[in-house]
């Protein structure tokens, strides 16, 4: 089978004539059609148009043209990104009769200009409201490492497709952790860029004051190139890791960890020579504020349609959106006031630190038939609580890289690397050093499930 995990290797092969874009695209489509039946990451395949675009890439290369750094690379989009000529459903049947998009989302257009080719839309929680990718209309996306477990959400299809080796690059969105949670549970790289640093035009909104779009990838270098293309400019030169002041977040971020997660973070801390541990104040209130802002903004956005078509929504999504729309305005004002205060507290940490580290989830992916996690000794809903460590940090608008932890001896786990706004370069520098040390990197599937190079 063709190796579809490394976007930059694929692009180099295509540019240098070792593979054609058409052969890569047809292999990608065949892999999805055969292997996605067990994980349900893909909702639509843009087959004929993707092959036609691959043919154009091959013609450009034959004519001596360079299509770009992602020449011929197939990618998938969470089903809330506009693809010209396709209906954007945002994981819901409510939008199924909407007119097709007239333009690509800005980040999709930028990736296409760099030579990449959109080939599939990917499963998600309806309207991005959830951490499980458990969709009443399109089904549950299963974790490629163990199909009896959740892939996380709301960008679960995007993470699972990369983890399964079906696609080397996918797009997701992150409001409260929807890139970081599934990247962690599926053992791949994911990036939530600085709020406002990557254009969101053409991505169906959830909560506009929190929404960020970003990439998933099978390799760190692929993630970096995808991010730079999406942002529209290269990052500054990466800083020397020896110059970075790295601090571990404790308190809230040290409680409720599974034993494998605790051990993995200790290994990273030990490798970095022992880290100072700092605590952020009022984390429970930060999580509550993020929840309230999300609920209110999402509910207000959907209220006109809910009044007409409430019964067409996923019941779990519908009920939460209605509840959000009913929140008193005074509550939302208080949440935003707290957000401003909390953002100042978080940003103050970067006077004495360059990168903060924290777990992305409490532990391994929960079972689908027992979708719970343990928090403070109690079993709680995974769909609502998998963002325990991601949700509070969303308030501050920071760039956060989810790095897959290696050496845990079991299911994937993820580490959040957190920097000040606009400091993505520090995250990639530290992630690269940890990868070189063998502490982080894409977690391989069990041998029976892995994609083997031809």
UniProtKB/TrEMBL annotation:
Keywords: Hydrolase. The keyword Zinc does not apply. InterPro entries: Amidase, Amidase_dom, AS_sf, Carboxybiuret_hydro_AtzE. Residues 25-427 form the Amidase domain. One of its GO terms (molecular function) is hydrolase activity. Pfam families: Amidase (PF01425). SUPFAM superfamilies: Amidase signature (AS) enzymes (SSF75304). This is AtzE family amidohydrolase. It comes from Gluconacetobacter aggeris.
